[in-house]
Write a structure and sequence with these properties.
Helices cover about 80% and strands about 0% of the residues.
C-alpha cells in the first residue's frame, strides 16, 4: 500500500522544502538580517525533517536514497567544478589577476557601462560554454572587483552575471538543459533554438536596457590603477576557452596553471605561496559544495517519498485547454525545479509527462521543448538555494536574497514566455 501511495505522489513529501523556506526567509525577516541563520543550518534542519518523515522506510534505505541523489552525475560534476573554480580563484587572486583585469576593463570600457557589459559578456560566454555555473565561476570575481572599483551595488553586478549566465543556459546548443528538453520532446535542436531565441530575445534586450539606464551616471569617480597584461592572461584564456566551448575543467585547470606562472614571473607569488593560495581558494568552496550535497540529499528523499510525483500529477490532472496545457508544462517543470534546485534534473523528470500533455493537446514539440527549458531556467535563475545564486553570492559574501531584486532577465523571461503562450498563435510561432 505504501508503494502505491508513493507512486501517486504525496504533498507532505515537500515538507522539507517548506521548512527550509520558512526557516531561512522567516529568520531573515524577523531579525532583519538574512545572515542570521546560515544557509547550511536551515538545509540541515530540512534534511533532518526529511529523515523523520516516512517511518515505514528504513533508515538505511533513506541513506541509500541520499547517496544515490548525491552521486548523480550532475551533482558530482557541479561539486568538482566548484573545487576547480576555487583553485583558479585562489591562484588568480594571489597572482594579482583580479585587480589587473578590473583595471584593464575600466580603462577600455567607461565605468557607466560596466554592469550592462557584465550581462552581455555573460550571455556570450554561457551560450558558448553551455553552463551557467561555469559562466558565473569565470565572471563573479570580476563583477566583485568592478563593484568595488566603481561603487555600483555589489548585488546588482553579480545579478547581471547570473542573468547573463541563465541566457546561455537556456539557449546554448551544448547545454544539458537544451539537450534534455530536445530529447524528451522529440524535436531538432536547431529548431528548438530558433523558437526559443525568438521568445527570450525581447527579455535580453530589455534587461540590457534596464542595466544600462539604472547605472547611467551612477558610477563613482574611478581612479584606474595599474595593470599587468601577464596577470590578465589567465582570465583571457578562461574567457576565450569558454567562448570556444572547451570543457570547463580543462579551462579552469589551464587558468590555474597560467595564474601560477603569471604570479611567479611578476613576483606576486613565490614557490612557497603557490600551493597555499590554491588551497585557500579550494577551501573557500567548501561551504557551497556542502550545501550542494545537502540539497541533493534532500531532493533525493523528496523524490523517494513521492514529492516529485505529487507535483507532476497535480499539474497534469488539471490541464483542460491548449493554452492551459502549455501553462501546465511550464508550471510542471518550474515546480520540479523548485523541488530539486537543478534545472537539468527538472527537465528530465518533467519531460516525459510534458510530452504526454503536448501530444494530447497537439502542441508543437518545438514549443514544448522551449517552454520546458525556459521555465526551468526561470526557476533556476531566481531560487535562492540554486547553485547559480549560491555561487554568485558566495563570491562576495552576501545573501542570495540580495541578488533576486536585480535578476531582471529570469523575471522578464517568464513574462515573455507567458506572452508567447497567450498571444502568439502556433502557426506564426512555427514559421
Amino acid at each position: 500500500m505504501e508503494k502505491k501511495s508513493v507512486n501517486k505522489g504525496r504533498a507532505v513529501a515537500l515538507l522539507p522544502i517548506l521548512v527550509f523556506l520558512v526557516l531561512f526567509i522567516g529568520s531573515g525577516i524577523l531579525m532583519d538580517d538574512f545572515y542570521a541563520m546560515p544557509t547550511i543550518v536551515a538545509f540541515l534542519i530540512a534534511l533532518a525533517v526529511a529523515f523523520f518523515q516516512n517511518p515505514s522506510l528504513k533508515f538505511n534505505d533513506k541513506i541509500k536514497a541520499c547517496a544515490k541523489g548525491v552521486g548523480d552525475d550532475n551533482v558530482i560534476t557541479m561539486c568538482l567544478i566548484f573545487l576547480a573554480a576555487g583553485a583558479f580563484s585562489g591562484a588568480v587572486s594571489a597572482a594579482g589577476g583580479v585587480d589587473s583585469t578590473v583595471n584593464l576593463g575600466l580603462s577600455l570600457i567607461p565605468s557607466q557601462f560596466a554592469v550592462v557589459g557584465l550581462f552581455l559578456i555573460g550571455c556570450f560566454i554561457s551560450v558558448s560554454m553551455g553552463t551557467s555555473v561555469g559562466t558565473i565561476v569565470a565572471l563573479a570575481p570580476i563583477a566583485v572587483g568592478i563593484s568595488e572599483a566603481t561603487g555600483f551595488n555589489m548585488a546588482l553586478c553579480l545579478a547581471a552575471v547570473v542573468s547573463g549566465a541563465m541566457f546561455g543556459d537556456n539557449l546554448s546548443m551544448i547545454s544539458d538543459t537544451t539537450i534534455a528538453a530536445v530529447r524528451t520532446q522529440g524535436c531538432e535542436m536547431s529548431d528548438k533554438f530558433k523558437m526559443n531565441f525568438l521568445i527570450v530575445l525581447p527579455a535580453a534586450i530589455v534587461t540590457a536596457i534596464i542595466y544600462f539606464v539604472s547605472t547611467l551616471g551612477g558610477a563613482s569617480s574611478v581612479a584606474i590603477g595599474d595593470y599587468n597584461i601577464l596577470q590578465v592572461i589567465p582570465y583571457l584564456l578562461v574567457l576565450g576557452g569558454a567562448l570556444a566551448g572547451i570543457n570547463v575543467f580543462v579551462v579552469l585547470i589551464v587558468g590555474t596553471v597560467t595564474s601560477v606562472a603569471a604570479g611567479l614571473i611578476t613576483g606576486t607569488m613565490t614557490a612557497a605561496t603557490v600551493f597555499s593560495s590554491i588551497g585557500s581558494g579550494v577551501t573557500g568552496m567548501y561551504d557551497i559544495t556542502v550545501i550542494s550535497i545537502t540539497v541533493a540529499a534532500i531532493s533525493a528523499l523528496v523524490k523517494e517519498y513521492g514529492g516529485i510525483d505529487f507535483v507532476l500529477n497535480f499539474i497534469k490532472n488539471r490541464t483542460r485547454t491548449k493554452k492551459g496545457a502549455m501553462l501546465s508544462i511550464g508550471a510542471l517543470v518550474l515546480g520540479v525545479d523548485l523541488s530539486t534546485a537543478n534545472n537539468t534534473i527538472a527537465i528530465v523528470l518533467a519531460g516525459p509527462i510534458a510530452k504526454e500533455i503536448s501530444d494530447e493537446f497537439g502542441i508543437d514539440p518545438r514549443r514544448s521543448a522551449s517552454l520546458l527549458d525556459i521555465f526551468a531556467s526561470v526557476g533556476q535563475g531566481l531560487i535562492p538555494y540554486g547553485a547559480q545564486m549560491l555561487y554568485a553570492a558566495a563570491a562576495a559574501g552576501i545573501s542570495t536574497y540580495a541578488l533576486i531584486p536585480y535578476a531582471f532577465y529570469p523575471i522578464l523571461m517568464l513574462i515573455c514566455a507567458l506572452g508567447f503562450i497567450f498571444f502568439v498563435p502556433e502557426k506564426k510561432a512555427g514559421k
